[in-house]
């Protein structure tokens, strides 16, 4: 499970991670192998956006796991001053992807600004709490008021080679599950999924953040 804390306060409660393919279930029974840490320092210039000159400083951890049958999965996690993100890396192919176990568990009473999912991603946002939001599928951009500030859920590095996502939610729960737009994602070799991103901080930090840009390739 993945938990995100900021200044000693839990903003994302323990949440499941994992991915399931035709040949391997990476959502349960994994054996931890090793961890490798590094620092990501980059500078780049954007053609448009909140600011043109960007400076990136993140800590990255690559957590390697194996199933009982020996299938390998790396969970890549990055953290910066304004966000946390993770993605799955399969060093070799294990057949088509059938879905993710990824979900975000928010405090039930957290304020929530959500847009019912639309293919064009241009719906209106309505305010609820994380638990009282109606049972539905929501846009993969969702804002919550979390302890000490706000958390924006998003995704990054969508290249067209992997399915886009939406959030599936059942009323009464604070859980928002990643549901892929396609029933299966065709793969024919190693796979790196898009980033599941959590931008967190006070409202000014969240609105000014370029975290999802910083995760994406040029």
Strand content: over 45%
Helix % is under 10%
Count of strand segments: 18
Low-pLDDT segments: none
**What value does the Rg take, in angstroms?**
17 Å
| Overall body shape | globular
Main beta-sheet annotation: 10 strands, antiparallel
- What gap, in angstroms, lies between the N and C termini? 31 Å
Output mean pLDDT: 95
Query: Pairing-aware structural class of the strands and helices?
Result: mainly beta
The topology string of helices and strands comes to EEEEEEEEEEEEEEEEEEHH
Number of helices: 2
Protein described:
The chain has 218 residues and is mainly beta. 5% of the residues lie in helices and 51% in strands. It has two helices and 18 strands. The strands form four sheets. Strands 4, 5, 6, 7, 10, 11, 13, 14, 17 and 18 form a ten-stranded antiparallel β-sheet that branches. Strands 9-16-15-12 form a four-stranded antiparallel β-sheet, with no helix packed on it. β6 and β7 form a beta hairpin. The longest helix is centred in the C-terminal third of the chain and has 6 residues, at 203-208. The mean pLDDT is 95.
């Amino acid at each position: 499970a993945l938990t995100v804390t900021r200044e000693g306060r839990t903003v994302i409660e323990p949440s499941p991670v994992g991915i399931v393919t035709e040949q391997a279930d990476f959502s349960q029974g994994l054996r931890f192998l090793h961890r490798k840490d590094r620092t990501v320092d980059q500078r780049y210039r954007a053609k448009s956006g909140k600011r043109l000159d960007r400076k990136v400083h993140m800590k990255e951890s690559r957590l390697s796991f194996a199933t009982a049958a020996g299938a390998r999965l790396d969970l890549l996690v990055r953290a910066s001053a304004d966000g946390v993100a993770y993605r799955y890396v399969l060093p070799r192919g294990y057949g088509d992807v059938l879905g993710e176990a990824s979900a975000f568990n928010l405090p039930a009473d957290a304020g929530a600004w959500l847009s019912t999912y639309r293919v064009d991603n241009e719906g209106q946002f309505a305010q609820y709490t994380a638990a009282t939001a109606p049972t539905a599928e929501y846009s993969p951009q969702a804002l919550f008021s979390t302890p000490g500030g706000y958390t924006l859920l998003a995704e990054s590095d969508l290249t067209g080679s992997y399915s886009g996502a939406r959030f599936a939610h059942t009323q009464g729960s604070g859980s928002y599950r990643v549901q892929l737009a396609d029933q299966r994602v065709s793969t024919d070799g190693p796979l790196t999924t898009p980033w599941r991103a959590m931008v967190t901080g006070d409202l000014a930090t969240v609105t000014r953040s370029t975290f999802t840009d910083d995760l994406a390739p040029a």
